[in-house]
Structures are given as structure tokens and as C-alpha cells.
Amino acid sequence: xxxxxxxxxxxxxxxxxxxxxxxxxxxxxxxxxxxxxxxxxxxxxxxxxxxxxxxxxxxxxxxxxxxxxxxxxxxxxxxxxxxxxxxxxxxxxxxxxxxxxxxxxxxxxxxxxxxxxxxxxxxxxxxxxxxxxxxxxxxxxxxxxxxxxxxxxxxxxxxxxxxxxxxxxxxxxxxxxxxxxxxxxxxxxxxxxxxxxxxxxxxxxxxxxxxxxxxxxxxxxxxxxxxxxxxxxxxxxxxxxxxxxxxxxxxxxxxxxxxxxxxxxxxxxxxxxxxxxxxxxxxxxxxxxxxx
Length: 292
Hints:
Keywords: Membrane, Transmembrane, Transmembrane helix. This is PBP domain-containing protein. The structure is a single chain. This protein has about 290 residues and is α/β, with parallel strands linked by helices. Helices cover about 40% and strands about 25% of the residues. The chain folds into two domains: about 45-125 and about 245-280, Periplasmic binding protein-like II (D-Maltodextrin-Binding Protein, domain 2); about 125-245, D-Maltodextrin-Binding Protein, domain 2 (3-Layer(aba) Sandwich), CATH 3.40.190. Strands 1, 2, 3, 4, 6, 7, 8, 9, 12 and 13 form a ten-stranded mixed β-sheet that branches. It has a three-stranded mixed β-sheet with strand order 5-10-11, with no helix packed on it. Strand 10 (about 220) and strand 11 form a beta hairpin. The longest helix is centred in the first third of the chain and has 34 residues, at about 5-35. The radius of gyration is 26 Å and the shape is globular.
């Protein structure tokens, strides 16, 4: 065989060996990264929670981590609309939303081409709050917008939810804005004529934290037909008999296995954590029965 041909064959063989080695090393690194990367029960992600839900979500995240020590779930607390924007930009991998997505929000997320999943994991409600000495006990659905209402100015998503459960189709909430939900309740403590609106979970949490249960109360709501009066409670919110109840949704990025795994946990085992918090669970928490 001519010497030049032998050199060509040797060069081809050597090139094949080098290519195989490079390919093998690449597969090794890819395999290693996959093995050490995020799974449904391990890795590190950040999920968002609106003001008022972060304590409940953090407690459930701690329970998740006690079962799966390899999972690190950070909680970002912010207003709901800002959290949804961060989720759409992949700044966070999951978000607990006060209220389900609107059609406009779904269309907006579709334009972002974001692959996401949605689980309904909790319940909440819009409630009317007054000073204990207020003369009013019942709010008629037909008279809601005749009253002068006060609201947390930063709870923008709640404003939309309130309109959705009281006046579908309306896009403007006529209410006096106050700084923060706590600031709203502090105003009601000193103004015996004011009526505030806020989420049931916020009222429950803040009055418990500050010992205001004997100073503030929630009004019952008379339904549109004018027959039944329903008081907001964990039971009436859970069953939906309180007319201003709404669902709490968890959105997760489908490209994040841990965000999806945490969503599955919220849907089932996480209901126990919500039942012990100010947030109402979406379904009856499962119970474990041990047989001797």
C-alpha cells in the first residue's frame, strides 16, 4: 500500500478516536448534570406568594422539604400582578395567585409562549369589615356600590377580583385607597362609620396577629335574590355558600420539574398546611389511618 494512503488511513482512524472521546466526554457531562440537576423533589426554585399568603405557603414548603431534604423552595412576597409578571418573565418558577386567571391574563401568557400548569389549591373571599360599634350587620349585594368603601391601594389584583365577584363586567372600583391592609384595619379601628373590603385570609391573619378580633368584625352578605344572609367563615368559604368566595390558583412553569412537583404536593398533602393557616384549603385534607 502506498505510504500516502497509510497516512490517510491513520489520520482518519485517529480522528475517529478523538471524535469518540469528545462525544463520550460530552455525554458524561450531560449525564452528570442531569443526575445532579432539578427533579420533582430536588433542586432549588423560587415561588411567589401575594401579601397574606406567604406565611401559609412557607409553612407548606417547610413540610415539603422535611419529606424531601434535597428541595430548596424560596418564597418571594409581593403584590399579585407583579408576581404574575415575574412568572411570565421566568423570574420565578411558580406563583400562588389570589384568584384564578382572567381571560385577559390567559391570553397575555399565551402571547409570552410560556408553558405553564395550573392547580386550584385554595379558597378565599372578599369580605366587608367594620368597627365593632358600626350599626350595619348585613351588606346587600344590590347596595354594595352605594356604600363608601375603603381598600388597600396596593392590592391591585384583589380590586379586580372584588369587581369580578360583585359586578362582573365593571372595570373601575370606586373606593378610598389606604396604605396597606394593616393600615386599612387601623383606620377601621378609629372610624366607626367606615366599611373596608379585603380578602378573608388577610382579615383572619391580621386580626389574629394584632389581637383585634374583639374590635373588628365581618359583615354578612345578603344574596342577590334578597333571601339568605351568609356570614363569611372558613366553612362557608370552603363550600362556596358565601357569595363572594373565589379560588386560589398555583401556576408553575412546566419546564421546572420541582415547581411541578411542589404543585402536586400543594394539591394534596399541602391542603393540611392550608387548613392550619388563614388560607382556606380547596378540598378536604386527606387523613392517614393506621391499622394495628
